[in-house]
Amino acid sequence: MSKISKFFKGGGSAASKGRGGPSPQEALARLRETEEMLSKKQEYLETRIERELAVARQHGTKNKRAALQALKRKKRYEKQLNQIDGTLSTIEFQREALENSHTNTEVLKNMGYAAQAMKKVHENMDLNKIDDLMQDITEQQDVAQEISDAISNRAAFGDEFDEDELMAELEELEQEELNKGMRDVRLPSVPSTSLPSRPGKMPPCHFAFLMIKPCLSTRRRAEDEDEMKKLAAWAS
């Protein structure tokens, strides 16, 4: 058995005997401490490598033996540094896997709590009562829509009268007014004397004709004005 196996076996035996193994939080804390320790060891080795390189440059060919010893030490430090790099990569992978496993465990645990809570809530629910409730809600919505439609419709006050009859009565009133206006209008009589051959002074009777104007309907007034224009042109 390797020293590392003995170390982990011995270090975790006390905790595992009492509680059946470390918790994820404890394991993650241990891994972070190990990462921190190895990172400090990396910094130390990098410093020693730079120092040995400086020694090798200092002696050079003047003292080959000392320079070679410095380079050998540098190689050993580089080998240890590479080993630490691999160890850190393994520890980082293990820590990330443990963190993901712990997260998944917590998620599943919370989902289980939620499922139990939903089950407890649904224990007091009756599907038949829910169907009846939804049916009542639908019926009340229909009633509310009918009430809204009835309120929004325009009140038909006065619609009991026939519109066609009212229009016929209005036309009769207009015709009576037109007939009355035609009875009140008197057309001028045509003069019996012969008209002068050349234009001259207009007789008084012709002037009277031009002064007559209709007084009632617009249509009759236009016809009278046309007749007076024709008489005036004929008299002149």
Helices and strands in order, then pairings?
Blueprint: H1 3-19, H2 24-59, H3 64-122, H4 127-152, H5 163-184, H6 204-211, H7 218-235
Helix pairs in contact: 2-3
Family: Belongs to the SNF7 family.
Region (Disordered): 1-25
Biased composition (Gly residues): 9-21
Description of the molecule:
This protein is an all-alpha fold and about 240 residues long. It has a domain at about 25-125: Orthogonal Bundle (Helix Hairpins), CATH 1.10.287. The protein has 7 helices and no strands. α2 (about 25-60) packs antiparallel against α3. The protein is elongated. Keywords: Coiled coil, Cytoplasm, Endosome, Membrane, Protein transport, Transport. It comes from Oreocharis arfaki (tit berrypecker). Belongs to the SNF7 family. InterPro entries: Snf7_fam. This is CHM4C protein.
What CATH first level of one domain would be assigned? Mainly Alpha
Q: What is the CATH architecture term of one domain? A: Orthogonal Bundle
The fourth-level CATH homologous superfamily of one domain is ESAT-6-like
Ends: how far apart?
150 Å
The secondary-structure class comes to mainly alpha
Low-confidence stretches: 1-17, 205-216
Q: How much strand? A: under 5%
Shape, principal axes of CA atoms: elongated
Instruction: Look at the structure and give the mean pLDDT.
Output: 77
Biggest β-sheet description: none
Residues in helices, as a percent range:
over 70%
- Taking Cα atoms only, what radius of gyration do you get, to the nearest Å? 61 Å
CATH fold call of one domain = Helix Hairpins
Give the helices and strands as they follow along the chain.
Answer: HHHHHHH
Tally of individual helices: 7
Give the number of DSSP strands. 0
